[in-house]
Design goal:
With 163 residues, this protein is α+β, with helices and mostly antiparallel strands. The protein has one domain (3-160). 20% of the residues lie in helices and 40% in strands. It contains 3 helices and 10 strands. The chain has helices spanning 3-12, 40-49, 66-77, and strands at residues 18-26, 31-39, 78-82, 85-87, 90-96, 102-109, 117-122, 133-139, 145-150, 156-160. It has a 6-stranded mixed β-sheet. A 4-stranded antiparallel β-sheet has the order 4-3-7-10. It is globular, with a radius of gyration of 16 Å. Mean pLDDT is 89; it is low at 1-11.
């Protein structure tokens, strides 16, 4: 059997429920550049549970509504407050991961000048899995780096970036 078959079989039955997110502060553009990786099968199951139906993300069968459904879902589950002010991200695009198991979603928060505090709330798939975790790697101003793990007990975290 093909390697693709085994990859698809593994991704359909994995027991690990986590998403990975990279957030980079771009001082030149005064923006936060965000890439989040979510297992495709878990995301599709969640869409089905929420009556969106199967969207076939990142496949030749992808529905016309898939990107709208994805952005709507992400907007409910990825939120930021910068210096006490709620900020809204822009959807840049999506692509499938090289192993075909995840979707990479690219977002950007603009007009983020000199952030002192950033509160991150990232709850993708929390409604589907009790053990879901979101692992975040943050690179901020002055090369400040932090790793954060969000889960049901701690769905948001505030970063203090004061130098």
């Amino acid at each position: 059997m093909s390697l693709l078959f085994y990859l698809l079989l593994w991704s359909s039955f994995h027991d690990i429920h986590l998403s990975m997110t990279q957030i980079n502060y771009n001082e030149t553009a005064n923006s936060l550049e965000i890439m989040t990786s979510i297992f495709l099968d878990d995301l599709e199951y969640t869409f089905e549970d929420q009556a969106y139906g199967k969207q076939h993300l990142c496949t030749k069968l992808e529905k016309d509504s898939a990107e709208i459904v994805l952005v709507e879902y992400l907007s409910e589950h990825i939120n930021f407050t910068v210096n006490g002010e709620e900020k809204y991200w822009q959807f840049i695009g999506k692509e499938i991961s090289p192993d075909l198991a995840s979707v990479y979603c690219y977002l950007e928060l603009v007009d983020v000048s000199k952030p002192k505090t950033i509160q991150i709330s990232l709850t993708t798939l929390f409604e589907k899995y009790d053990d879901q975790q979101s692992i975040i790697h943050f690179k901020g101003p002055g090369n400040k780096q932090e790793y954060i793990i969000l889960d049901h007990k701690t769905p948001r975290k505030e970063l203090n970036l004061a130098l």
